[in-house]
Every structure is written in structure tokens, then in C-alpha cells.
Design brief:
Blueprint lengths: L1 E5 L13 E3 H8 L3 H9 L16 E3 H15 L4 H25 L2 E5 L2 E8 L6 E7 L8 E7 L9
Antiparallel strand pairs: 1-4, 2-3, 4-5, 5-6, 6-7
The chain binds a DNA duplex through α2.
GO biological process, one term: regulation of DNA-templated transcription
GO molecular function: DNA binding
Protein name: MerR family transcriptional regulator
Amino acid sequence: MKYLFKKEQLKFGFNMSQYVFRIGEIESMSGISARQLRYWESKGIIMPLEREDEQSGRIYPFKMFIRIMMIKTYLDQGNTLKNAVIRVDETQNFMRPTHDILSSAFHGLVYEEDMVYIDLGDFDTDGNQRLLAYQKKSGENQKVSYRIVDKEDLEESDE
DNA sequence: TTTCTGACA
DNA sequence: TGTCAGTA
């Protein structure tokens, strides 16, 4: 088995933090008026980014756009603003550990013949074994399977 | 042009 | 929340 690449060799990751939006952009993307966004801010529901330059216009990170869209979704379902925010906070609170665990669990991609595995890191405390996850090809069955391999069976990638 | 704050409805 | 005024 051989590494296609390891996490630290990943060259084409998307760091969404580089995408920020002005209030007018959020307004046209979300349908939430700028007036409304400023009102939400006054209630502590959303927060613009701290700007390093001395410009006064608000800028929002991509994550805040997601939050705004989630609030809007609950609002459109008939929730009050207060309840919409409570629901979004609940959702974000349980999504965070899920996201954190999944992103830190990813250690790289390994292949063997035509099979690709995700390296999920050390399986044992000694670090002699690696846990790999994969899906069987073809089948409609999307179940994830796991495989434990000895670390010495894993070759580094070529580069 | 866009955004900001404050005021009034 | 929408809208308007007067700015930066």
C-alpha cells in the first residue's frame, strides 16, 4: 500500500476564511436586508469580522454567511427570530465537534491497486497500526468499511 | 457607489 | 423592519 498523499502534502485545500463579504453582498445572496443584518448584530446574533484596516464597512466571513442562511431557513419556516437563533445555535453546537473530529481524523489517502483508502491515523497507542476507511466499489451499498494495517506496510508517496 | 448611524413610522 | 437623511 502506498500513500497518494498525506494531509500535510495537501496542496489544493479550500480555506474558506479567505472569502469575506460586504453587507450588500450578503444582502443579495441571502435576501436578508442590510437593515435587518445590522439589527441582528445589535442583538448579538451575528458579528462582522474585526477589520485590520481602518475602513468602517462591515465584512462577514463565509461561516457567518452560513449562519445567516440557517437563521433565514428557520425564519421562513415560521419560527420567531429568537427561536430560529436557538435552533441554529443548537445545530452549530453539535456540528462543531463532528466537523472537528472528521477533519482531524483525516490523515491522508492510501491506495493499493485500484482501491483508495482514507488514512484515519493511529489505531493502537503504540502507533504501529493504522486505521483505514474505504467503500467497496460499484455496489449501491454505500456502507463504510474499515481495515487495520501495519504501519510498515505503508509506503510514502513518491514526491 | 456603498455603507454607516440615527430617527421616524 | 423599511425608508430617508446626511456622511465618509
